[in-house]
UniProtKB/TrEMBL annotation:
UniProt organism field: Dehalogenimonas formicexedens
Full protein name: Uncharacterized protein
Lineage: Bacteria, Bacillati, Chloroflexota, Dehalococcoidia, Dehalococcoidales
A Pfam match: CxxCxxCC
Recorded superkingdom: Bacteria
InterPro entries: Puta_zinc/iron-chelating_dom
Length: 205
């Protein structure tokens, strides 16, 4: 196994806990989706960061999925990687469930002079946008959000989200190039930090 995590000084117990979480992800309802996301990040990583070719396919999956769980905070990388957004519109047109804050439901319905229940619904304990596939505010003609200035917080911080374990991680959406490149860059940061910690450069394969 690659010495990446050892060089970073990550304790074996933390690593084994993170691997258990990855296994739970893979065995959950979104397991297939998560697997595709990790594979897509791995492929992107190999393209933009040749030293990653030193790892076997299974090591690469391990590194990417563990970084997804215990990698650095994403916001700074998200800011730096903004240009990775292709404007494909997936995040507004292909989502099936868009969870929003209750405060947003009040603010937006007031601003639009609509009854809250007409545009938002309670789904279990979550407030969601009623029309979410595509989002009712997505304009397919120009790909823009029709309430951009008023959009919910969840849209403002995309692709940052809360996973099923209540961790703040990048949304596992293989179709979103922005999400994929944010995680790929988290992995690069981890690999470079591990190289520095080991005091040796990883040579391209
Ligand atoms: S899905 Fe991702 S890449 Fe596509 S428009 Fe949304 S943020 Fe950009
Ligand atoms: S509210 Fe706007 S930004 Fe949010 S999903 Fe709908 S169209 Fe996209």
């Amino acid at each position: 196994m690659a010495k990446v995590f050892e060089n970073l000084g990550i304790a074996d117990t933390d690593l084994s806990e993170a691997r258990k979480i990855v296994t739970r992800h893979l065995n959950s309802d979104f397991g297939e989706k998560y697997e595709r996301y990790i594979a897509t990040v791995g492929a992107a990583l190999l393209k933009v960061y040749p030293p990653a070719r030193n790892f076997s396919p299974s090591e690469l999956v391990d590194i990417v999925s563990i970084t997804d769980i215990i990698g650095p905070e994403s916001r700074a990388i998200m800011k730096r990687m903004k240009e990775a957004c292709t404007g494909c519109g997936w995040c507004c047109s292909q989502t099936r469930r868009i969870v929003v804050d209750e405060a947003d439901t009040i603010r937006i319905s007031r601003k639009l002079k609509r009854k809250r229940e007409d545009i938002f619904a309670l789904d279990g304990k979550d407030w969601v946008i009623k029309q979410a596939h595509p989002c009712g505010w997505w304009n397919p003609k120009n790909g823009r959000c029709q309430i951009y200035g008023e959009r919910p917080r969840t849209c403002r911080v995309w692709p940052l989200g809360i996973n099923e374990l209540n961790q703040q991680t990048v949304q596992a959406v293989a179709q979103c190039n922005y999400a994929v490149m944010v995680l790929a860059n988290k992995v690069i940061w981890m690999l470079q930090s591990a190289e520095k910690a080991a005091g040796a450069q990883v040579q391209p394969g």
